[in-house]
Q: What sequence folds into this?
């Protein structure tokens, strides 16, 4: 089994994933720890953790697990005892879903994530030849960086989808509304916008994301769907959050 199945989280002082028995999907899942047991792990944002992902970070064909502080390398033998090797990387303060994809077309997997779920920031992290990462800011990390409509706060959910059909991974995200009520978090009453960011490559290893607004009165929740709703083969968007339920059909 190369792909850790489904839920990732902390359990009894250990971080890991839960394997579901699909012959009995409502039965008790089997927890697989990928870290040593410690009080620090048990206390570290046990109930509410922002920023998780899974993907092949090092290109060895095995799915690794990511969190805001770095990534855990899946071993060759999942049945082997002991923790997974941890590679520390500062991927922010815990944003939303984290994705592993080659952004700039250099053949190395990169990482896309928001920086802080209830504040500001959206970046992609370029993987270098030495396996280190260089951050490229898409939306700034402060209120001032995002003034005058340049950006928005509370990017609590992200989807990667080829919106325009050019074969490149675009970003779909928006502002979560009232995550902690009308006075909580950064700019809770600002327009709950929904955007997509078009990936452009320069053919020389550079890449930029161009913002495209979809809507200003919907936003995102903690997760949403992108994919075919009708039969025209264009990806659509379905969202449910505290502001309502929304379906966006691409024309």
A:
């Amino acid at each position: 089994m190369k792909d850790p199945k489904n839920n990732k989280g902390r359990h009894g002082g250990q971080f890991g994933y839960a394997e579901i028995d699909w012959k009995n999907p409502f039965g008790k899942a089997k927890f697989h720890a990928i870290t040593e047991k410690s009080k620090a792990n048990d206390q570290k944002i046990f109930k509410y953790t922002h920023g998780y992902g899974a993907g092949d970070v090092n290109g060895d064909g095995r799915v690794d697990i990511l969190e805001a502080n770095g990534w855990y390398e899946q071993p060759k033998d999942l049945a082997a005892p002991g923790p997974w090797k941890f590679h520390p990387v500062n991927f922010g303060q815990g944003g939303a879903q984290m994705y592993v994809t080659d952004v700039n077309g250099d053949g190395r997997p990169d990482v896309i994530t928001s920086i802080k779920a209830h504040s500001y920031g959206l970046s992609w992290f370029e993987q270098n030849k030495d396996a280190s990462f260089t951050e490229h800011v898409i939306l700034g990390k402060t209120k001032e960086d995002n003034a005058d409509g340049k950006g928005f706060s509370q990017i609590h959910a992200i989807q990667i989808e080829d919106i325009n059909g050019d074969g490149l991974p675009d970003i779909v995200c928006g502002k979560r509304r009232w995550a902690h009520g009308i006075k909580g978090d950064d700019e809770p009453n600002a327009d709950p916008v929904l955007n997509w960011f078009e990936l452009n490559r320069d053919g020389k290893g550079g890449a930029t994301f161009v913002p495209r607004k979809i809507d200003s009165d919907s936003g995102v929740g903690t997760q949403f769907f992108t994919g075919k709703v009708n039969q025209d083969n264009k990806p659509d968007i379905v969202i449910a959050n505290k502001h309502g339920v929304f379906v966006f059909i691409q024309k």
Summary: The longest strand covers residues 207-215. The two ends are 40 Å apart (CA to CA). The helical segments are 39-43.
